[in-house]
Give the backbone structure.
Amino acid sequence: MTALDSTAAESARSKPITVPPFAVIPGAQVQQVLKGRENQIVELVEAAYRLHGAGDSVNPPSYFLRFPDRPSARIIALPASIGGQFRVDGLKWISSLPENVAAGIPRASAVLILNDHDTGYPFACLESSIISATRTAASAALAADWLSRGRERPARVGFFGVGLIARYIHTFLAGTGWSFDEIGVHDLSADSAAGFRGYLEKSGTASRITVHDSAGQLIRSSDLVVFATIATQPHVSDLSWFEHDPLVLHVSLRDLAPEIVLASANIVDDVEHCLKANTSPHLAEQLTGNRNFLHGTLDDVMAGRVTLPADRPVVFSPFGLGVLDLAVGKYVYDEVVRSGELLIIDEFFHELRRHG
Ligand SMILES: NC(=O)c1ccc[n+]([C@@H]2O[C@H](COP(=O)([O-])OP(=O)(O)OC[C@H]3O[C@@H](n4cnc5c(N)ncnc54)[C@H](O)[C@@H]3O)[C@@H](O)[C@H]2O)c1
């Protein structure tokens, strides 16, 4: 324990242990806190990755709840604990129903529960689809920055699958200083492509926007490719589309055939997490029986433990870690407390005397 740690621990011990009040933070408050703070959120996410890499976290495998009568639906539980400046435990509970989109509502919905480090009591329930999209986009922007160092900075970006996550990723790239000569768009749904194009135009981008009907054309004409589809199995297998060695943010995890993974330098957020649930890297492991195709984690790159070869595509596959939701969620909570607008549910915990 460092001197600083022991002082912090001492002050925590000297605080009386009490049940914290329970708060609810609606999406409107979450959005108000996060809007326009892209650089700050990317820094938080970087700090969370570094703490996780240093072992100051607990992040067990996500649990996927699936339903025999609704095969496309799932609800995922992401329990986690993170130390450092965050010092909080909790759980994200996020459901995905792809059919929602046809009804005009987002695919994913979520809550995040924060638990008090000292008593274990839950002290907040936050609307978390925004937090989840935000941490995903911040992680993508962080990866785009670190993984493009030492190569020519991409000037042409291609978005492959353009729903809510693609929109957040574009916002984070733009908000952290990226500008592109060209933005390519490809989606199976013409409505999605048109909606995303409309968003880009409203965002005031100066980039030339092209909607590509062909997947190969999009990839060939992009130096940075962002996959954010809902594909459940690989649909991109033509190696020749990647001859120009693009940087690929493989956020939707299951688009690339193992052959593409094996021909690339692969960076993940967490090895054990990512090599599960039939992600493309997991399929590559199943095909080869080894993990030699993995170069390391984003934390390895940030810490200088791994350097990337310049002669092949670089693929970042982030499984999505619960510690990132906690880091962003705790930041939102602290900011809402600071604003004096925390919505406390009085007497939420009501049975507080053990013997009545
Ligand atoms: N890795 C992470 O941390 C992380 C976090 C959040 C979301 N995600 C993933 O991001 C993905 C996108 O989420 P969203 O909320 O934006 O979904 P969405 O439903 O809003 O958008 C997905 C889009 O992809 C398109 N699409 C589906 N299959 C396609 C294909 N084969 N080719 C081209 N386009 C295709 C759909 O038409 C749709 O427009 C999901 O797979 C989700 O699981 C990953």
Summary: Residues 129-147 form the longest helix (19 residues).
